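batch_manifest entry 22 of 60
target: MET25 protein
source organism: Mohoua ochrocephala
requested by: lab member K.T.
priority: normal
notes from requester: please return tokens only, no post-processing; we will run our own comparison against the previous entry in this batch. if the run fails, retry once and flag.
--- input ---
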Amino acid sequence: DDDIFSSVFCENSEKLINVHLFALAAKYYSLSNLGVCTPLEDVLEALKGDSEGATGIKPDEFMNNKKSHEVQVMSELVDNVANYCGIKQVIDIGSGKGYLSSFLSMQYNLKVYGIDSSSSNTNGAHERNRKLKKHWRAYQSRGRENLKSQSLEKAKDRPAESEIKCKTINEELLNNANSLQNQDQVIIQGLVPSCGFTEMATPATNTETEADLVTGTQPHETKLSEEVLAILNVLPADAVEDFSSSHYNCGELCEEEKVQRKMTSLKTKARKSSESNLYFPLTSCITAETELGDIITDLEDCMMVGLHTCGDLAANTLRIFTAKPEIKAVCSVGCCYHLLSEQFENQEAWGFPMCQYLKDEGWCCGRNARMSACLALERVAVGQMLPTESLFYRAVLQVIIEEIYGVTKSDRHVGKTFSKSSSFVDYVRKSLKKLELDDSKLPDSCIMDYYEKYKHRMNELEAFNMLKVVLAPCIEVLILLDRLCYLKEQKNIAWSGLVKLFDPVKSPRCYAVIALKNQSCS
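--- output ---
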């Protein structure tokens, strides 16, 4: 409780005096310990109901390991929410290069509008999507070849007698109906593997006639066709088309099955003809006041998603969701907390706080705290240490800029200069040029004097940043619970929650804010 942690800081000086208790307190107030998150497994179970799971194609070949992990997990959740709400349209806010959007459209056949403020991202998404479709078809072709190989292996494993009976089925049907009554189950077992599946039929009854067997009207054959068709329907579209175009030496017994497969193939081709336009990258800057109908002409009941929406965009995604009746659900994973605007900054619209409670209490974070919230404790915990040397370079540079140039604030950024620098002197000179400061009045010896002056304090800097890492989850809790409380305050929300979607080592910003509107809302 709070009394236990009261001795973390000195009551008079307010300095940290107990690092161990500080770490325990930070862990105590983290999301993983507070018990406010809903397990992803529980959410998926509640959404799926009696529906079948989707056939999974992993996106490993299309993106790096981190992005593949994020897209695969989030797309499955989005598809389940969309099915639960009975919607087929998805709006991906801050879609970037279109990783999530393209996967949702290709894997789950959802109609996705990806909106990003950067035209270069949108143009890149167009080109990437075009190339991805070719890659995707090749991926599915390999999947079909694997199915064929599996079918051949199964056929090889079957007794030679069954293969002979499958090849000579017409002769056996015409010449020996009585024998067939005892052997039809074995024959069907020989037939079904040509489709890549195992036994699905039951023995024929003694009352079935030879005509019934030849025309394929017996009950168990109809059941067989229906079950095979049902399984074909959950396969990727190209796989269905491949099966329907295959040729079998199975005689008239397969006629009904051929007809149904042909119908399935036609439906598949019709669906594929429209699939080329299932993903639409659009360029637009999204704010809380954005009218989606002005951007998307065929806006219908839909779901809004955002995978690592930056700064205020995550907050605005939730505001649009609550304000627009067409949006029935939202799944938002935010990032870049340091770019959030705050109410105390006298902004007209801000990203923090969102809920009325924190507004009334006058809560604020400040940029330093929000910067700390972006740190990744889980990565540090598994040995991915902080970049202490680059942080040290940056800290000494700031001292130089303040003391030599008298600059305490700048709109310009140093960026990733450290990785491109051969030494501290090189780093300082490149940084000064980026900041448009004259480096000619600063000799190398002066730069190195600053380095030597503060070098012994590098360990202090490392310890300080480790404390910031430990505190990071607590600040993230404040930001995420603020967003959840905002949704809880809305009257048209049926359910809302925080869900840990990703492995935090692979993807540190791993929490999603999810909400579904009341079905009566329109």
